[in-house]
Design brief:
269 residues; Rossmann fold; ProC C-terminal domain-like fold; 2 domains; eight-stranded mixed sheet; 14% strand; binds NADPH dihydro-nicotinamide-adenine-dinucleotide phosphate; binds (2S)-3,4-dihydro-2H-pyrrole-2-carboxylic acid; pyrroline-5-carboxylate reductase activity; NADP; cytoplasm; 6-PGluconate_DH-like_C_sf
Length: 269
């Protein structure tokens, strides 16, 4: 059974729900997507723009779906689960993308034996470049994991991890795009300071980040080695590297990942 043979229902069409919907539709235009949310205008916009089925009734979306993606805030997940419990019949696979919320907490709210998979994707799903990590719940079958991986690999890259690493992944790739957007803006600011126009500065900054990321992924070389390839003796780059190191750039990014992971753990308590 392939992903395209499944009907997928989204509970919550906020930032991440919409991002996943757009990414999945871009790679599987023929797939059946259903979505519900409490905010009707957003649903109507998605229906108009993307032609997906929408409802303000979660149970209707679940009834029409084989795979149910939970894309509501972690803080309200428990109450949403209590309300939909009886619609989640044994034939359905539940996928939660909620930060911090352990599989066990989800399974506790649903009927015994419910198949749950937990995923941490990121907002780059919108452009099919998400970095996702997937782990199986107690009752998830091998086929469930294949379906989940197929879904998240169709919108970027996806790996399987043990659940204990989900908070680390949340701190790194789940929250990560938000660390990089200000970097791109700040790089562009520097070039604007030196006289470049804003639009070209943003294009060059974003392409620089994209190109550097692609080199790490495609060459398999260590990032330090790649950095050395740019850094000529007594050249321009090493002057910039010194000032970045003086600013504590490495500690800043390490601490960002650790802080987000810590918050993810808090959300699970
Ligand atoms: N944003 C991101 O980059 C990422 C988010 N996540 C996870 O994805 C989940 C969603 O996050 P995000 O999209 O940012 O949050 P949003 O608040 O943007 O989206 C949640 C949506 O759910 C709606 N909603 C609230 N109550 C219900 C309900 N009872 N039934 C159906 N829909 C409801 C909200 O409506 P209203 O706003 O009117 O309350 C909102 O539209 C979270 O669990 C988060 O941890 C994971 C990875 C990345
Ligand atoms: O900020 C958050 O809580 C969510 C989870 C990961 C990214 N955004």
């Amino acid at each position: 059974m392939h992903l395209t043979e499944k009907r997928i229902g989204f509970i919550g069409t906020g930032k991440m729900g919409e991002s996943l919907i757009r990414g999945i539709l871009a790679s599987h235009s023929e797939i059946t997507l259903n979505a519900s949310d409490v905010y009707k205008p957003a649903l109507e916009r998605l229906n108009n723009e993307l032609g997906i089925n929408v409802s303000t009734d979660n149970t209707e979306t679940i009834g029409d779906s084989d795979v149910v993606v939970l894309a509501v805030k972690p803080q309200i997940l428990k109450s949403v689960l209590a309300a939909i419990k009886d619609s989640i019949t044994a034939d359905k696979l539940v996928i939660s993308i909620a930060a911090g919320v352990p599989v066990a907490a989800i399974e506790d709210e649903l009927n015994e034996g419910t198949r749950v998979v937990r995923v941490m994707p990121n907002i780059a799903a919108t452009v099919a470049e998400a970095a996702s990590a997937v782990c199986a719940g107690t009752n998830a079958t091998d086929e469930d994991m294949v379906i989940a991986l197929e879904m998240f690999q169709s919108i970027g890259s996806a790996i399987t991890i043990p659940e204990k690493l989900m908070d680390a992944v949340t701190g790194l790739s789940g929250s990560g795009p938000a660390y990089i957007f200000p970097v791109i803006e700040a790089l562009a600011d520097g070039a604007v300071h030196e006289g470049l126009d804003r639009a070209n500065a943003i294009t060059l900054a974003a392409q620089t980040v994209l190109g550097a990321a692609k080199m790490v992924l495609e060459t398999g070389m260590h990032p330090g080695e790649l950095k050395d390839m740019v850094t000529s003796p007594a050249g321009t780059t090493i002057r910039a590297i010194r000032t970045l190191e003086e600013s504590g750039i490495r500690a800043a990014f390490m601490n960002a990942v650790i802080e987000s992971s810590t918050r993810s753990k808090e959300l699970g308590n």
